[in-house]
Amino acid sequence: MILTVSFGRQGREWFDIDVADDCTGVQLKAILGLKLFGEPPKNHMQYILEVKQPEGLWSTVPEQQRLLEAGVREGAYIRVQRAFSTTTDSAPSFGRRVLFQLDEADEQPSSRDKRNETRSCSM
């Protein structure tokens, strides 16, 4: 199948590639890594392979899955992005809060604050 490799922001940097139907995401990432970046993926570097049908949105291609099984069809756009990481684990997101979320301490003023409010109102 013929796919268009999206590389760079300008269409003039894009090119077509003929890929076997039984090619997997890992194989295609290795091929494109050599062609685009001059090196295959290394331990500290990951390549993310994404595909977009002409009428669809970008989605990630699973590494071990064949391109046809992943829904890649003739005429699709593909791109490879480099992601540098020292670990394969994702980091937990601690400390996230909803916008305008109040803590319990913020919702009810302490008794000392109430006395100060009363004093300021009576003056």
Structure description:
With 123 residues, the chain is an alpha+beta fold. The chain has a domain at 2-84: Ubiquitin-like (UB roll). 24% of the residues lie in helices and 21% in strands. The protein contains three helices and five strands. A five-stranded mixed β-sheet has the order 2-1-5-3-4, covered by helices on one side. The termini are far apart. The model is unreliable at 118-123 (pLDDT under 50).
Largest sheet: 5 strands, mixed
Q: Quick one: how many beta strands?
A: 5
| Gross geometry | globular
CATH superfamily of the domain at 2-84: Phosphatidylinositol 3-kinase Catalytic Subunit, Chain A, domain 1
Distance between the termini: 82 Å
Question: What is the radius of gyration?
Answer: 26 Å
What topology, given as strand order, has the largest sheet? Answer: 2-1-5-3-4
Top-tier CATH class of the domain at 2-84: Alpha Beta
Assign the structural class, choosing from mainly alpha, mainly beta, alpha/beta, alpha+beta, or little secondary structure. Answer: alpha+beta
Low-confidence stretches: 118-123
Give me the CATH architecture of the domain at 2-84, please. Answer: Roll
Which percent bin holds the helix content? Answer: 10-25%
The topology string of helices and strands comes to EEHEEEHH
Strand content is 15-25%
